[in-house]
Amino acid sequence: MEKSNIKSVVAESSKPNATELVRKNIENEIISGALLPGDSLNEAEIARRFNVSRTPAREALLQLAAQGMVAIIPRSGIYVARMSVRELLAMFEVLAELEGICAKLAARRMTEQERADLKQAHAAGAECLKNGDHNGYARLNADFHNVLYLGAHNPFLMDQILYIRRRTQAYRQNPFQAPWRVSKSVEEHRLILEAILQGDASAAYERAIEHISVGGKEFAEFVSAIPSNLLESHDKAYPNVMRSDD
After folding, report:
1. Residue 58 and residue 47: Cα distance in Å, rounded?
2. Cα distance between residue 40 and residue 43, in whole Å
3. Residues 6+ apart with CB under 8 A from 189
4. pTM as predicted
5. Alpha-carbon Rg of the chain, whole angstroms?
6. CB 153 within 8 A of CB 145
7. Residue 23 class from Cβ within 10 Å (0-12 exposed, 13-18 middle, 19+ buried)?
8. β-strands 70-73, 77-80: how paired?
9. Distance between CA atoms of 52 and 55, rounded to whole angstroms?
């Protein structure tokens, strides 16, 4: 094959796939809260919005449905998937265990640089608490966990954790508005960090599980803060979402 032809093939293969482009954008809108659980998704409208044919729009929605982020309801329509209280609890139980495994592996495998990065992420979060910057803490909380995931040196485990976090993100919007939540999170991060720096895999595992677990009164408070229209209804007909800003 001539060089010019090879270049054209490489250029063609590097172009963003239309289905992937639509899927990623819709997924990001769901994660960010621009699309809420129960919101209707119209295939033709999505095709127009992203300037693609209906085929990639349909394929993107099918992929999102396979991921559990979209619900296709026969004789009703396509919607951003809602979760039930039971499903949320089940996901948080799994997430807590996976985060515990991640912290355990990180205690064994983190490099000196990764340990320093984790210390820095924690220190930055503590500074946000000191300054009352709750919005800034949300970003630094994500930084702390991302350093932890990378430090476990297990890409498959990281993918599973990030999948659950994406699936539950719509229900965890603005989790650090209450000052006590930031204070509690910073202290729990300190305990995780301390165990990892000491190379105590068992303690790191336990502290990470305690950090993620939501049970009893705390889980009840978490659920009570979720607008009822975002939770799955028994009929699964997915009526139109009534947004709080409407």
Report:
1. 8
2. 10
3. 122, 125, 141, 144, 211
4. 0.75
5. 21
6. no
7. buried
8. antiparallel
9. 8
Cα–Cα distance for residue pair 110/90, rounded to 1 Å: 29
Structure token pair of residue 203: 């303690």
Cβ neighbours of 159 (radius 10 Å): 10
- Give DSSP secondary structure letters for 118-177: HHHHHHHHHHHHHHT-HHHHHHHHHHHHHHHHHHTT-HHHHHHHHHHHHHHGGGSSSTT-
Give the angle 124-126-132 at the CA atoms, nearest 5°.
105
- For 160-189, the pLDDT digits (tens) are 999 898 888 877 766 656 667 888 899 999
At 71, list the tokens.
Answer: 């619900």
70 three-class SS: strand
